[in-house]
Amino acid sequence: MKLYDGGRAPNPRRVRVFLAEKGIEVPLEQVDLGALGQKSAGFTEINPIQRVPVLVLDDGTIIAESIAICRYFEELRPDPPLFGRGAKEIAGIEMWNRRLELHLLFPISHVFRNSHPAMKEMEVPQVPAWAEANKPRIAEFLHMLDRELKDRPFVAGDRYTVADITGLIAVDFMKPAKLALPDDCANVRRWHADVSARPSARA
Ligand SMILES: N[C@@H](CCC(=O)N[C@@H](CS)C(=O)NCC(=O)O)C(=O)O
């Protein structure tokens, strides 16, 4: 088994944090995104979408998409249950994970990819207006999340889940995207400090 990783890039880190929470070690192979290694012929054969992370199993099965990879390991090692247990809990965690992907991680990624000079060759064409358009959406979502986190310790309830991993990675990705947490988001700040203090956050 081998996990194609991408250093500081946010999606591969989602999987590394997930694996650290599960206590699973997987051999990593770095794909140099700066040198556009994901666009090489060899890697394109592994993932025609040209993105990391990608998990390759010993039988040659290829699993791309961070959440698909995480779900594979959840099935192999159900404890701790980061996608939840039982219909209601699983649905709630899925709901929050999707909200954090669609309304926080992806918009932050749009800002980064469409405004950062280092992304010129990966995001073609860069559309600076799209970066600007996403900024108020990010702030609006963070204020909503702040209200939600007033009454519970973690994004989807009382326990740390994959939704917290997506949130942690999203908020950390605000720095390279040159975005700041709004001053009045004290609950998000408290939650972010808590999830950042977990050993898995260093993955
Ligand atoms: N939906 C995919 C997104 C993967 C993705 O966008 N990966 C980025 C790194 S965070 C990448 O490989 N970018 C290379 C490129 O844009 O050329 C997932 O969840 O794994």
Shape: globular
Helical/strand content category: alpha+beta
Low-confidence stretches: none
Oligomer: single chain
Spatial order of the strands forming the largest sheet: 2-1-3-4
Question: What summary fits the major beta sheet?
Answer: 4 strands, mixed
Q: Which ions, cofactors or small ligands are bound in this entry? A: glutathione
Percent of residues in helices comes to 40-55%
Radius of gyration from the alpha-carbon trace, in angstroms? 17 Å
Strand count: 4
Q: Residue-averaged pLDDT, rounded?
A: 97
Order of helices and strands: EHEHEEHHHHH
Number of helices: 7
Quick summary:
By secondary structure, the chain is of the alpha+beta class. The chain has 7 helices and 4 strands, in the order βαβαββααααα.
